[in-house]
Amino acid sequence: MRRDKRRGRKKVCSFCVDKVETIDYKSVDKLRKYVTDRGKIMPRRISGTCAPHQRQLTAAIKRARIIALLPFTAE
């Protein structure tokens, strides 16, 4: 009869709230929020994004890295 005491508010997808249809790889300041200081992409359970937007976010971050808008790793 042990209950989970860590129940908090469910995270909502910020892209769904803003009604974003596609995530642009050129909006670096928005993408940087979803990358850790070591350069890793934050997982869904931490960032709170929904699955479709997480897939778009990952692709956008990878594109931004390839054309050198975002670093692959921390300096």
UniProtKB/TrEMBL annotation:
Q: Which UniProt keywords apply?
A: Ribonucleoprotein, Ribosomal protein, RNA-binding, rRNA-binding
Q: Which GO terms describe its molecular function?
A: small ribosomal subunit rRNA binding; structural constituent of ribosome
Keyword match S-adenosyl-L-methionine: no
Which InterPro entries does the annotation name? Answer: Ribosomal_bS18, Ribosomal_bS18_CS, Ribosomal_bS18_sf
Keyword rRNA-binding recorded: yes
Give the coiled coil ranges: none
SUPFAM superfamilies in the record: Ribosomal protein S18
Q: Which domain of life is it from?
A: Bacteria
The UniProt similarity line reads: Belongs to the bacterial ribosomal protein bS18 family.
The cross-references to NCBIfam families, in alphabetical order and at most eight, read: S18
Protein name per Swiss-Prot or TrEMBL: Small ribosomal subunit protein bS18
This chain's source organism reads Alkalicella caledoniensis
